[in-house]
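Exercise: predict the fold of this chain.
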Amino acid sequence: MPKIVDHHQYRQQLLSQCFTLFAKQGYGSITMRAIAQGLGVSTGTLYHYFDSKEQLFEQLIDYLSLQDTNECALAELSHPPALADRIRVAMEYVACHEEYFRQQDLLLAEFYRQQTPEVARQNAVTMAADERYVQALAQFLGIDDRSVLDFFLAWVSGLLHRRMLMGDQISMAEQTELIAAMVSAYWERTDRDSKSLEWTGAGGGGRGSDR
């Protein structure tokens, strides 16, 4: 009796193993043949599931964003009532997965470098993946101000790049305290009633207090 293959599950399995290969060789250098060899499958099998390296990479970014922002992943984080403490928890998560997030950032930059800015900004798959991270951050921090969310993500990206260059000369702990103080102070000076999400702390109801 022929073996029944769940093609969706097998595609997910292939994607789950691809990130390390891309991170090691870089988007521009790696080939579909090298990816197939790294996965232990034939090139024909790989092309059966992905039409091109570009499509494979896009689906990888989509897959990673879904894994990183699913409810189970977010439920593992503590949810303190104060905004500054929620920022500290978020940054502790970044610190624990620093190399993973840095490699993802570098791969996306390399992917975009091979396209015009206009084409890159019209990539529905990577834009949707980015939006998942923004919305997950909004939900966790209890902030619905896009400018603040974009600032936070841009700051994190910059911090990861600086630490790649300078290592522990750039203290993650010190930088975390700075961003927590900056965003909290800004939030105190804005109309939070018009910008805050209804935020429910773990095990409780109602709006969390940031004071």
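Check your answer against the key: The CA atoms of residues 69 and 136 lie 6 Å apart.
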